[in-house]
From TrEMBL:
UniProt key word Heme: no
Keywords, ordered alphabetically: Amino-acid biosynthesis, Arginine biosynthesis, Cytoplasm, Lyase
Keyword Lyase: yes
Originating species: Brevibacterium samyangense
Official protein name in the record: Argininosuccinate lyase
Enzyme category, top tier: lyase
Similarity annotation: Belongs to the lyase 1 family. Argininosuccinate lyase subfamily.
Amino acid sequence: ERLSLWGGRFADGPDDALAQLSKSTDFDWRLAAYDLAGSRAHARVLHRAGLLDDAELSGMIAALDTLEEKVRAGEFLPLLSDEDVHSALERGLLEIAGPDLGGKLRAGRSRNDQIATMGRMYLRDHARVISGLVLDVVEALVSQAEAHREVPMPGRTHLQHAQPVLLAHHLLAHAWPLMRDVARFVDFDRRADVSAYGSGALAGSSLGLDPQAVARELGFSDSVENSIDGTASRDVFAEYAFVTAMIGVDLSRLSEEIILWATKEFSFVTLDDRFSTGSSIMPQKKNPDVAELTRGKAGRLVGDLTGLLTTLKGMPLAYNRDLQEDKEPVFDATDTLTLLLPAFTGMVATLVFNTEKMAHLAPRGFALATDLAEWLVREGVPFRVAHELSGAAVKLAESRDVELWDLSDEDYAGISEHFTPAVREVLTTEGSIDSRNAKGGTARAAVAQQLENARAELTRL
Ligand code: ARG
C-alpha cells in the first residue's frame, strides 16, 4: 500500500507508469537538508501561532533532528514509492514522530512553497561555491600575468596579427570577464535572498503563520511580496543558469586559444603533463583535453539555460508540474562547473609560455603599421593620408618579403617626404607597446596599474 500525501478523494493510487514519471527523488534528494531546515523553521511558526504546544514543538524538532542524522548517515533513503524529497521526508517524520504529531507539520505549507524556497537555498549556497572556484581561475590568470609582466605577444583581430600587446594584458582580458561573472553571482544573491515559505500552494496561508520569521531562520533577508510570484517564478533559477553558462562561455574562449597555442604551428604554450593526455595509438601525442572538455561543456551549460528558459516560456500562473523540470538544469550546471573549474585552474596555473617565440612574432606581419601611421599624425599629417602612406610602406615591404623595419631611410623618403629617419623610433615592439599608455592600454606602466586593480578587485570579490 502506497503511502500518499493525498487519498481522500481518490479510490485508487497512481499507476506505476505515472509513479515512475512523477518521481523526482533521483535528483531532488540533494535538497533533503534544506527541506529539513525548512521543516524546523515551519514547526517554530506553527508553535508561535498556537498550532503546536511546547511539548509538540520539542518532539517535532527532536524527530526532525533524528531524521536529519539518519539522512546524513545514509540510513534513511527515499523509496521507489516516494514521489519527491518532500514526500520521502514526510514519511520519515511520520515513522519517527508517529502519525499524530508528524501529521501536524504539513499545516499551512505546500510542496509548492517548500520547493521554491529549497531551490533558492541551494542556489545561494552553490553560487558561493562556484564563485570561489572561479576566483581560483582568476588567481591563476593574474599570477601568470604577474610572472609575464613584460612579455610581448601578437595581439590579434580576426585571428590576424593586429598590434603587439603584453601577454599580461591578454591574460587579464580573460580574468576581467570571470570577475564580472562572480560579481553577477553577488548581484544574483540580492534577488535570491527572499523566502517563498508562507505562500502555501499559491494564495498564502490562513493559519496566522509568520513568513518573515521563517525567512530569517533560513538565512533570507525577507519573504516574498506575492505568494503567486513566490511559488510560480523561476527567473532567479534562470539567472543562476545564465551566470553558469556565461562562465562556461568565458572559459571556452580561453580554452580555444590554449588549444591553438598548444599546436605545433603556434607553439606558444606547453601544457603540464598533469593537465594533458596522451593517445592510445600515437605515442607522440600530448592533447589539451582539459581545454577541449571545457569548450565542450560550455555547450552543455548553454543547453541547461536554454532548457530551463524553454520550460518557463508561456507557463501560466501559478504552480504547474512543469516546474519540477527546474532542478536538473541548475544541478547539472553546478556539477559541471564544480568538476571543471579545479582542472581548469590547474591547467592555467601550470601553463609554460614560449615567451621567446611570442616576443619574436609580436611585431611581425606588419603589426607596427598603425604605429607608423600614428607617428605621421603626430607630425601633423591627417590620419586619412597617414593611413595611406603607412599602407604603401606595408605594400613595399610585402613585395620584398621583409618587415617594416627592414626598409631603408631612402625607401621611406621615397614613399613620402613626411617619413624622416626619426620614424624608426616607433618601429620597435617596446615603442609600440609603451606608447599605448592611457588607462586600459597595453603599455607596461598601464598594465602594471591594471594588475594592481585586478588584485584589488580579486580581494574585494
Ligand atoms: N516535486 C515538485 C517540484 O519539484 C514539488 C511538488 C509540487 N507538486 C505538486 N503536485 N504540487 O516542483
